[in-house]
Amino acid sequence: MALSAQAAIVITGTRVIYPEQSREVNVRLANIEAAPVLVQSWIDDGDSDANPDQIKVPFVLTPPVFRVEPKKGQTLRIMYTGTNLPTDRESVFWLNVQEIPPQPTNAEDTNLLQLAFRTRIKLFFRPAALQDGPSGELLKWKVVHDGKGQSVLRVDNPSPYYVSFSRVALKAGDKEIQFDPSMVAPFGHVSFTQQPGTRSTLARGAISYKLLNDYGAEVAGSATAE
Predict the structure, then answer these.
(1) Model confidence pLDDT, tens digit, residues 2-61
(2) CB within 8 A of 107, min separation 6: which ones?
(3) 111 by DSSP, 3-state: which?
(4) Is residue 226 pLDDT above 60, yes or no?
(5) Of 28, 44, 176, 202, which alpha carbon lies 20 to 30 A from 84's?
(6) CA 74/CA 213 separation, integer angstroms
(7) Dihedral, 156, 159, 164, 168 alpha carbons, nearest 10
(8) Which pLDDT score is estimated for 3?
(9) Residue 149 within a domain
(10) Are residues 151 and 65 in the same domain?
């Protein structure tokens, strides 16, 4: 028997941008179901398995636990504490919103399968000196060897912004090779792996990609791999 379930709590947006000069940033949630939902929220620095009570991040998030009535909403307030973060590049954290399953009310309910849905989206802290957003214009693409006899597609990001991809493909001749999308850190690089089932030899060619802007919208771009 197939089971179908979905999260009751929906976050407005797929990422949060926190400008350093802001006193706070608000994130809106909505309960799309016909029953009330108890919710826990927290911010982590990249470890998805970390205990929320033991995480140290430079933000205060309120409320940490709350109830959302059916078809109603809730606003989360994120406040930067002023703890030192790099001023020449973005920093990334993660906003977590988890539904807390209700306690069983009778003996029969103890046999029910309860799912604790958690939504996790990126939170980018943007220093005051950075006035723009992620762009593909400065990216440098290369086909390189990984030391294991395999060729991989590498992208270097000389910008101070995180760049998140939703699609990356390399076309050489009449063949297009697609890669698992990833995120590249400011002044960093990442090597893309080919999608499962494909192990083609890579050669220099035309790159097509889609990156995500501050609003989570896809922005198409193209380049040439050296």
Answers:
(1) 444 688 999 999 999 999 999 999 999 999 999 999 999 999 999 999 999 999 999 999
(2) none
(3) helix
(4) yes
(5) 28
(6) 25
(7) -40
(8) 47
(9) yes
(10) no
End-to-end alpha-carbon separation of the chain, Å?
51
Q: What is the Cβ-side half-sphere exposure of residue 69, based on CA atoms within 13 angstroms? A: 1
Record the pTM: 0.89
pLDDT tens profile 74-91? 999 999 999 999 999 999
As a whole number of angstroms, the distance between CA 136 and CA 86 comes to 22
Report whether 181 contacts 161 (CB < 8 A): no
Tell me whether residue 55 is exposed, middle or buried, using C-beta atoms within 10 angstroms of its C-beta: 0 to 12, 13 to 18, 19 or more. Answer: middle
Asked if 134 and 163 touch (Cβ cutoff 8 Å), the reply is yes
Q: Which domain holds residue 173?
A: 140-224
One domain for residues 144 and 87: no
Q: Identify whether 4 is part of a domain.
A: no
Neighbours of 74 (CB within 10 A): 19
Please report the pLDDT score of residue 115 as a whole number. Answer: 72
Residues 154 and 49 in one domain: no
φ, ψ of residue 136 to 5 degrees: the values are -95, 0
Can you give the pLDDT at residue 116?
78
CB 24 within 8 A of CB 125: no
